[in-house]
Amino acid sequence: MLDIASKFKMSDAYIDGQWVKGSSGKSFAVSNPANGAHLANVADATADDALAAVAAAKAAFKPWAAKTAKQRCDILRRWNDLILENVEQLGALLSTEQGKPLAEAKGEIVYGASYIDWFAEEARRAYGDIIPPARPNTQIVVMKQPVGVVAAITPWNFPNAMIARKVAPALAAGCTIVIKPAPETPLSALALAVLAEEAGIPKGVLNILPTTHTTEVGDVLTKHEDIAKVSFTGSTNVGRLIMRNGADTVKKLSLELGGNAPFIVFDDANLDDAVEGALNSKFRNSGQTCVCANRIYVQAGIYDAFAEAFAKRVGDLKVGDAFDDGVTQGPLINANALKKVEELVGDAVQKGATAATGGKPHELGGLYYAPTVLRDVPLNARVLKEEIFGPVAPLIKFETEEEVIDLANDSEFGLAGYFFARDIGRVWRVAEALECGIVGVNEGITSAVEAPFGGVKQSGLGREGSHYGLDDYLEVKYVLMGGLGK
Questions:
Q1: Distance from CA of residue 397 to its chain's centroid?
Q2: 161, 218, 273, 455: least buried by Cβ within 10 Å?
Q3: Residues in domain Aldehyde dehydrogenase (predicted)?
Q4: Which pLDDT tens digit goes with each residue over 318-345?
């Protein structure tokens, strides 16, 4: 096991294989959202640093792409192994800067590593084709090649896994990458770079830019002519901006944007399973996930029983510091997040909803909000239209399958959706009818490295994970070979 903290200075960025202070020499503070404790001062990268990182990635691209798929596979496997050897340290670091319970943080580390392991294998499966030609004495060959330098902009809610999910396919395909982690959680990104360096990833192939200069650094990464592809996870509004920024250079894009996931419980559902599924979906990471249940629709015949059982389970959730025994709910990430949750709950209650449990900041104070179930939420409540990103579960009663499909699809977003039912005809109909890229049937957690992750409508473009995930970092080249006759 490595002493990760001793391998780099917590104030440094990682550019061209070097730990650097950044061109401005300035830094920004990172704190623990659970108690406000100061954790580190981290280099505040500027546009000049972003330009240096892009140049380094460009210089490293051809040598990295020239390595055999087996060579890239072996390096990625070493990186995966090092991450798994250091789960305890990485998990503790993640919990400290992000706030999620330690067990959940360690689970994220293992989950993130699974993408590196998966794409290490997929590196050797970037298959092309030979297509029967239309003309004699010719041959049609299709090959796949890396797109080039990639920029990745990642969020704070999964500061390890979101990086791994983007870096792994990029490096497997033969691309190099520049990463801008969220300013709330840069330490997990830097720790991954320590282990990447130890695994033998060459200088310039992987670059990390911690920064609070989001706009100016983001502009470099999304407009620079040497960036071939941008992969972004975050809000739909920022996704739209990235599309505009990349238009002049026609960049390839992967955008995993906002969500407003419906969670539907039909009368014929297993009540216990539905309650457990809703609990897992809604309250993982204190509701701060893009795929968590945002609107819970329950059919009239089971509504009261579900609401009572669900509220009881939610009321028993333990809130507290990430390192306390039995804690499943940590703090929200910052004061703005807490304020938004309070406003959404206040709006719903003012319009007629009632809190079956919670409905207010937690007694611990700070950034903690009590896990909340809202009953009888009216359809005009903001909480049903906006992504909550907090531990609040709104319940809405419905009567018919047709009604709830219309309600579920009445959103600009289309990332994830869930429903619980046992009638096989209904299962098939609803799975087809939901307008989202991910559907959980009788399951509340759907993420898996083997499956494609991504949305439709204004929830984004492209897919991460699965064998589809490698294609987003490859270009398809058609070669017509002539003159093959005797």
A1: 30
A2: 273
A3: 19-479
A4: 999 999 999 999 999 999 999 999 999 9
